[in-house]
């Protein structure tokens, strides 16, 4: 029987992943002044010990005010390189790959880690709690929700500085030994705020209704990052393919716009579009079902293929078992185009978040269910995974 596509290698520029799984970036609220800690080394390292070909380090802020919480990871200064290098060195020692997500939280910065806000009963990290509520950046001075601080409308000079910060952070990430960089353009953080006509009400070249204005910052950041990372290094971009606000009956960031974004960034050197959704507005209306985000990924992939563009697509959201993981990247199996197994796969890479918190051995478990073997450390060889019934 042929190996399911999800267990076939995937080559992106100079990088080859052993199979099609990735740990989706997840904030752990455990950094110390933006530096990764022992927690991160053990937490991220465990995935490499369990056959995960690619682990993406959590949203890592390019400026201090771009952190979601005071305990977020950052890459705004050189001292933050070494603790990341410790993680990349370990993951490489296990023959696996590691990426990093670079981010700026925009108007959603300066909040408390979930467990703090549950006990303290508030979300905003005030100054006494290590936050910076008076120094939030956004395209327009519109707060996330009632009771949240009003962000500052970024000046043109701040925007120019921000592009430099992304570029510097990317250069540091390369120094830290990462195999790829993902730009966080999703979930209502700064780049989504610029992309959405609801949160971007600027009247200059970076905003307003015209599409080319709202994407300008993203385009500048992609171009800046590509200019400092090796040609062989993949660049990923995560977007919210829709902000789920079409019920307002006014222009919003929706799937149609995201297809345009996809076409645009495919030509700028983005290698994989990681398709997520939502997070830009508390009034979002989502109809959740297991494929609610995979379907968005699939539609964008089909759009790109019709345009003859080869940018890869990552799917994320509620992928938590062998059957779905297999299905997401499986094609109809009839055609073999440029090393791709057919054209009708929904996505090319399976990103998994919460299931990895429950089950670090997700990949070998899925592998045993599908009758496939994955590489595990020799140290673990006396405890093979039992074979399960095939799905
Ligand atoms: C997340 N998510 C997330 N997304 C992102 O782009 N950057 C991040 O740093 C984080 N942080 C984060 C922390 C935690 C604890 C969770 C649970 C989630 C979202 C995550 O990557 C993923 O997109 C969603 O969780 C949906 O996938 P699953 O969990 O259904 O597989």
UniProtKB/TrEMBL annotation:
This is NADPH dehydrogenase. It comes from Podospora comata. Residues 6-370 form the NADH:flavin oxidoreductase/NADH oxidase N-terminal domain. It comes from the Eukaryota. InterPro entries: Aldolase_TIM (IPR013785), OxRdtase_FMN_N (IPR001155), YqjM-like (IPR044152). Pfam families: Oxidored_FMN. Transmembrane segments: none annotated.
């Amino acid at each position: 029987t042929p190996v399911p596509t999800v267990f076939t290698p995937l080559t992106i520029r100079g990088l080859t992943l052993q199979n099609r799984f990735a740990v989706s970036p997840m904030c752990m609220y455990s950094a110390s002044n933006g530096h990764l800690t022992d927690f991160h080394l053990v937490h991220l390292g465990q995935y490499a010990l369990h056959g995960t070909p690619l682990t993406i380090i959590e949203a890592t802020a390019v400026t201090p005010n771009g952190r979601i919480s005071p305990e977020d990871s950052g890459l705004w200064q050189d001292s933050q390189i070494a603790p990341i290098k410790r993680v990349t060195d370990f993951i490489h020692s296990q023959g696996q790959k590691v990426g990093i997500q670079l981010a700026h939280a925009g108007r959603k910065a300066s909040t408390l880690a979930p467990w703090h806000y549950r006990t303290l009963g508030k979300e905003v990290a005030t100054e006494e709690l290590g936050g910076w509520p008076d120094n939030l950046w956004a395209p327009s001075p519109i707060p996330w929700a009632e009771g949240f601080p009003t962000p500052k409308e970024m000046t043109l000079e701040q925007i120019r500085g921000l592009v430099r910060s992304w570029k510097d952070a990317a250069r540091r990430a390369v120094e830290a030994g990462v195999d790829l960089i993902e730009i966080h353009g999703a979930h209502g953080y700064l780049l989504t705020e610029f992309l959405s006509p609801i949160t971007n009400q600027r009247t200059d070249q970076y905003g307003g209704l015209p599409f080319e204005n709202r994407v300008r910052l993203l385009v500048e950041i992609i171009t800046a990052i590509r200019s400092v990372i090796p040609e062989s290094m993949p660049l990923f971009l995560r977007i919210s393919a829709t902000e789920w606000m079409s019920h307002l009956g006014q222009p919003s960031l929706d799937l149609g716009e995201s297809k345009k974004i996809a076409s645009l960034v495919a030509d700028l050197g983005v290698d994989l579009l990681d398709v997520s959704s939502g997070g830009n507005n508390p009034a979002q209306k989502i109809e959740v079902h297991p494929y609610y985000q995979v379907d968005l990924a699939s539609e964008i992939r089909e759009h790109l293929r019709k345009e003859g563009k080869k940018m890869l697509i990552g799917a994320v959201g509620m992928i938590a078992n062998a059957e779905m993981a297999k299905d997401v990247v499986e094609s109809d199996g009839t055609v073999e185009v440029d090393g791709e197994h057919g054209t009708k796969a929904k996505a090319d890479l399976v990103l998994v978040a919460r299931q990895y918190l429950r089950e670090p051995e997700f990949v070998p478990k899925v592998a045993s269910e599908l009758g496939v073997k994955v590489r595990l450390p020799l140290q673990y060889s006396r405890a093979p995974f039992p074979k399960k019934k095939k799905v």
